[in-house]
Write the structure tokens for this entry.
Amino acid sequence: MRKLIIWDMVTVDGFFEGPENDIDWFVFDQELENYIRETQAEAETLIFGRKTYELMSGYWPSAEGWIADFMNSIEKIVFSRTLASADWNNTTLFKGNVAEEVSRLKAKEGGDIFVFGSADLTSTLMRHRLIDEYHIGINPVLLGRGSPLFKENSDRMTLKHLETRTLKSGVVILHYAPESSS
């Protein structure tokens, strides 16, 4: 069974993007790139909601470097009821039931599935208890406003701490998994 992992950078006040989809506050350096290489080495699939897909597909195809190569070559699935097509390399557009499709993807053999951004999709996955791990990079910045990563969910969820990494830049990366309900 494949793991579904949420990986997002957030501000101390919990926003994953500022107004106007602003992400220029991300602290990105070689140490963070090394972390990404290490933790996403087993990744085989990326899934996105429409908004994040449009931002990613507008940037990565013309970018260069290791992360661009990774983003452009990996299998990608975009979940959208309104998108007409998904033309980014190795991308499939899915318009059906998100929970059923993600459950099917997780049941297949293969490497990890990652979600980047995609707060609305993350909310849906949380409601259906499909997320295996949360990897959250807290950036040393307060925005005051923006888009929160975690939308309203009706159920409380207790998380188990797996790992903490503090980078020289001040970014603190937390890994959590949902507590088992057994």
Notes: Residues 86 and 161 are 36 Å apart (CA to CA).
